[in-house]
Amino acid sequence: MDKNKNTSTATLERTLPVLGMTCASCASSAESVVSHVPGVVNASVNFATGNLNVEYEPETTDIHKLQKALQDVGYDLLIEDEKVQQEKIEELHEKKLNQLRKRTIWAVILSFPVFMIGMFFMNIPYANEVMWIFSTPVVLWLGRDFFINAWKQAKHRKANMDTLVALSTGIAYLFSVFNMFYPDFWEQRGLEAHVYFEAAAVIITFILIGRYLEEKAKDSTSSAIKKLMGLQPKTVNVMLQDGTEKQIPIEDIQVGDTILVKPGEQIAVDGIVTFGESYVDESMLSGESVPVHKIENEKVFAGTINQKGSFQFSAVKVGKETMLAQIIKTVQDAQGSKAPVQQLVDKIARIFVPVVIGIAILTFILWIILGGESGLVHGLLAAITVLVIACPCALGLATPTAIMVGVGKGAENGILIKNAESLELTKKVDAIILDKTGTITEGKPVITDVKWLNDYKDTKAVLIGIEKQSEHPLADAVINHFKEIDAAEVSEFKSITGKGAKATFNGETYYVGNRKLMSDHQIQVSDTLNKTASQWEKESKTVIWFSDSKHAISVIAISDKIKDSSVTAIKELQTMGIDLYMLTGDNQATAKAIAEQTGITNYKAEVFPQDKADFVTQLQANGKTVAMVGDGINDSTALATADVSIAMGKGSDIAMDVAKMTIISSDLMKIPQAIRLSKQTVTTIQQNLFWAFIYNVIGIPIAAGVLYPISGFLLNPMIAGAAMALSSVSVVSNSLRLKWNKKI
Fold this sequence. Notes:
Elements: E1 4-6, E2 12-19, H1 24-35, E3 40-46, E4 51-56, H2 63-72, E5 76-77, H3 82-120, H4 127-142, H5 144-155, H6 161-181, H7 184-187, H8 197-221, H9 223-229, E6 235-239, E7 245-249, E8 258-261, E9 270-276, E10 278-281, H10 283-286, E11 292-294, E12 299-300, E13 305-306, E14 311-317, H11 323-336, H12 340-370, H13 375-389, H14 392-412, E15 415-417, H15 420-425, E16 431-435, H16 436-440, E17 446-452, H17 460-469, H18 473-481, E18 491-496, E19 500-505, E20 508-513, H19 515-520, H20 527-538, E21 542-547, E22 552-559, H21 566-575, E23 579-583, H22 588-598, E24 602-604, H23 609-621, E25 626-630, H24 636-641, E26 644-648, H25 653-658, E27 661-663, H26 670-704, H27 708-711, H28 717-740
C-alpha cells in the first residue's frame, strides 16, 4: 500500500511496488539504482514483498524520476492512486501467474521429447535436428525474459539471476547448434560432437516451474494481509434524518453518520453504539474467539462481525483512521521492514552473481588446462552447471518470507508487530516489566467503599469537579460512582504527577490523591480514616484520599479485578525462565496483595513514570534484554526505553504509538504467545539461511567438477537446474510451516 507522510520538512517517505524483479539480486540491484538517484536519502527494496521503501527530497527528485531510473535497468514502479493500488497489484500478480503457468506448461510439453531423445534415443535418425526444433521455442521464446532482462542488466554493468540463466542456457544452446552444423570441427580432432539441447531446454523448464511454485508460495505468505483487507464491506446502510435507510459506498461514509448493522453483517468503520445491542465477533482483530457484548456507548471496530442482534452506531473513525486500516498499514510496514540479519544477506546478494560468473570462468579455464582431451567439453558443461546451480533467490527469500509469515501470524492472533527487528529481538527477552492497572488487572476500576467524615458530604461536588478535569484512569471510577451529583466549578486545577491533583473552590484548596500527597502537604488524617484505609489496602484495594487544605475529608476504595488469564500467563512466563517485575503507582499494601495473588515475587509500589524508565535502564545495565508491558500514558517513557515495548490495545493511543508491539485484546496470555512466535520465526530464518548457504557452498564445487578426480562424477546441468528451482521453493515452503504451526 502506498503511504505518504512527512518525516521532516525536507523529505517525503513512500512505499511503492517494484515490478519485474525475479530474484534477490534484482532487489539489491533495484535498491542500488534508486539509492544513487540525486535527492534520495534512504532506499530499501524487499524482494519477498516486492516493495520499495524510499525517503527522498521532493525539491530534488520525485517518484517519476525514480520510476525512470528503474525502467532503464529493466524494472518498473507501480504508481497508482492509493485506493486502486492494491487491486492493481493483485491484477498484475494474477496476470503474471497466468503467464508463468502457460509458459511452464508449454515448456514441459516441448522439453519432454527433447529430454527423452537426449537421454535414451540419441541414435535415432535426425535426433539432433528434432531436439533443435523442440528446444528452440523453449529457449528463445518461453525463456526470452531471461535474455531480455540479462541484457538490460548488462547495459548498466549489473548482473542478476537472469544473467546466470541466460549465460548457461545460451551457451549450451549455441554450442549445440554449432556442433550440429559443424560436427567436423571436433571429429577432425578425434572428439565426438555432442549436443546439449536437452540441458538448455530442461534448465529453462525447471526454472520456470520453480518460479511458478515460488510465486504461488510467496502469495500464501501474504495471505494475512489479504484476509485483513477482505474484512471491510463495500457498502453500508446509513440512517437518514427521516428514519429511512440508504445504502452507500464505504468511501462516502462521513464522521458522525449513523450506520445500521444487521445480523451477520461486517462493521464498516469504527464507532460508538447509539441504539440497540448485540454480540460482536472481534476475533479477526483481537484473536479472541468469544463474541463481545455491545451496548450503548460501547466501541465497535471496522472488520468485526455482528452476530444476532441489530444496532445503530455513530461513525467516529473512517478510511485510514479506523483500527483495521491502522492494523493493515502496520502489518504491511512490518512485513516490508528488514531484520538485522538481512543486512548481511543483502551484502552477499550484491556480490553473489559476479562471484558465481567468476567461478564459472575459472572452472572452464581449469578444465581446459587440467582436463585432458575432453577438457574443453567438460569445462564448458561444468561452467554451465555452476551458472545454473547457483541460487541467490534462496538466500534473498530466507529472511523476508519468514518475517512476512511471522508478522501475519501475529496479526491473525491479535499480536500487532510494528517491525522485523522487534520480532527478531523478542526471543531474547529474559526480563519483563508489567504495569499493574490495565495490564495485569482489567483496567476497569470501580468504587467498592466510601468513608466520609461527618459534616463533609456536601463537598462531593468539589470532588467530582476535580476528577472531571483529571486524566487519571481512576478518576472515571469516581465520576461514574457519583454520577447523580453535579460537579462544582473548581479553578486552578493542577495535576501532580504520581500523586494526584489539586484545585480551588470558594477560596479553599482541595486535594485528591494518594497517601503521599497527604503527607507532602501536612494534611491531618483522623484515626478513623486511617484504620479504614489500612484495612482496604490489605484487601488489595486502591485508596484515594480527599482533603481540604488541612484535614482529610474522605477515603475511597477502588478495586480493579485481576484479568482471568493473568495468573496463567504469569506462570507460563516464569516457566519460560523469564524474570517478572510488577511496577505500580499504587501503595505498598495493594501492590503486595496483587503480587501474592498472581505469583509475582519482584514488585515495586508507589513508582513514578520516570522510575519505571530508570528501572528498565537498570535491568539493561545488568545485561538483561527487557520487555516493558503497559497501557497508559505514564508507561510511555518506559516503553520507549525498553528493548521490546508491548502495549495493551485497550490502553492509551500514546502507549500504542510508542510500543513496537501491541496486544489488541489486552490479554496477557498473548505475551508468551508472542515470545514463542519470535522464537519460531528466528528458528525458521536460521534454518532457511543455513540451507541456502549450504546448498550453494556444496552445490557450486560439485557443479564445478570437484568430485570428478575422485569418482569420475560430473553433475548433469539438468539436475542442477532442478536443484536450483527446488532450493527457492523449499525456503519459502519452510517459512510457510510457521503459518501452519499450531503450537504458537
